[in-house]
Amino acid sequence: MRLLFLLLLLLLSLIHTASGYRRNDIYLECGRMGGACKHQKTHGCSILPAECKSRHKHCCRV
Length: 62
Fold this sequence. Notes:
Elements: H1 2-32, E1 35-39, E2 57-61
Antiparallel strand pairs: 1-2
Keywords: Secreted, Signal
Protein name: Beta-defensin 33-like
GO molecular function: CCR6 chemokine receptor binding; chemoattractant activity
């Protein structure tokens, strides 16, 4: 029973780690698209469809 619990815990931690790496790829995508994460109140920039780490920022074409 203990072994089953440890295997389940290991599986959950691996899933969490793998999903974290995918999430970081999305953040790096903004730089690859030629943009930068800017505060939402910046005006005069075209918003790109990539995400930023902070929810108060968006990907803006530089």
